[in-house]
């Protein structure tokens, strides 16, 4: 029986490969709204979809990002200023998009904008450290989606949400994993909710890629800044060597895991938008496929034991 199933595997992969090759027609009439197009995946996706002939509406956070993107794209690409953490800005962008897309509706929204700082052990943080990240990574995703959902229903289009492997497994505390787990849950509920309307919802769960959110200097400076505000009693629990050990362990992990080929992620985003049969979840990156995803299916006591081995020793644990 097992051998029969094994023999069917190549047939299944061939069928899936063939099915996933089909692309939607009429790209030139399809509008795609992407948030966070100043840098990283969002920027590359805006350029790629523009090259393919889609009508891209690139949500930019800064004037600089907007100007630089315009220089390298066609006249077809339009930009709109949007701060996803500010509801007024989100609504203003949505009103503008409605006038641009008209009766065609919006083919896809890609909730890509995200931040990864402040990140640190939870007892180094206050609730005011959690709120700004949740406002961008989680409530920003919900707000942007709801602001254009009626336009997407009109086009029987797609919602593409950028989560992370950290939406499946939690090796670090702080707001990042909380926000990405929230994105997963929002997307799963929305997918069921929107299925009768012919709207598809896809989730992108990248592993570690070399962008600003994984920039060593930014991450290190963020840790130093948070440590400087940690109360002395907490610092004493961790020990004064802890910060250096933590920074060193971040360095090692980044060296082991960071992938420079951002097109692996962009290719998945493109597929979610352009394929007739998009996947529900995409896991770009070898670390996502071979390490984080298998970890997410392990019993919690195994993952806890593994992650505890990877973090530096606290002073209090050595007493
Ligand atoms: N890189 C990775 O390893 C990795 C892994 C898993 C998931 N992700 C996710 O991938 C997405 C894209 O990140 P990236 O890696 O491409 O990093 P990135 O280059 O920093 O891109 C994030 C973009 O979001 C923008 N942004 C920040 N705050 C915003 C706000 N309030 N409103 C609108 N835009 C805002 C940033 O603008 P500024 O540059 O002007 O701040 C930037 O252009 C994020 O959701 C991230 O969590 C990344």
The appropriate CATH architecture is 3-Layer(aba) Sandwich
Form type: globular
Bound small molecules, which ones? NADP nicotinamide-adenine-dinucleotide phosphate
Order of helices and strands: HEHEHEHEHHEHEHHHHEHHH
Text of the CATH class: Alpha Beta
Mean pLDDT: 95
Largest sheet: 7 strands, parallel
Total number of helices: 14
CATH superfamily: NAD(P)-binding Rossmann-like Domain
Question: Could you describe the 3D structure shown?
Answer:
This protein has helices spanning 2-21, 40-52, 63-71, 87-101, 127-137, 139-155, 175-194, 216-229, 232-238, 242-257, 263-274, 286-296, 300-310, 315-318, and strands at 31-34, 55-60, 78-81, 108-111, 158-162, 200-204, 281-282. By secondary structure, the protein is an alpha/beta fold. The protein has one domain: 3-Layer(aba) Sandwich (Rossmann fold). The chain has a seven-stranded parallel β-sheet with strand order 3-2-1-4-5-6-7, sandwiched between helices. Strand 1 (31-34), helix 2 (40-52) and strand 2 (55-60) form a beta-alpha-beta unit. Helix 5 packs parallel to helix 7 and helix 8 (216-229) runs antiparallel to helix 10 (242-257). It is globular.
Summary tags:
single chain; 319 residues; alpha/beta; Rossmann fold; 7 strands; binds NADP nicotinamide-adenine-dinucleotide phosphate; Sc_DH/Rdtase_CS; Dehydrogenase/reductase (SDR family) member 9
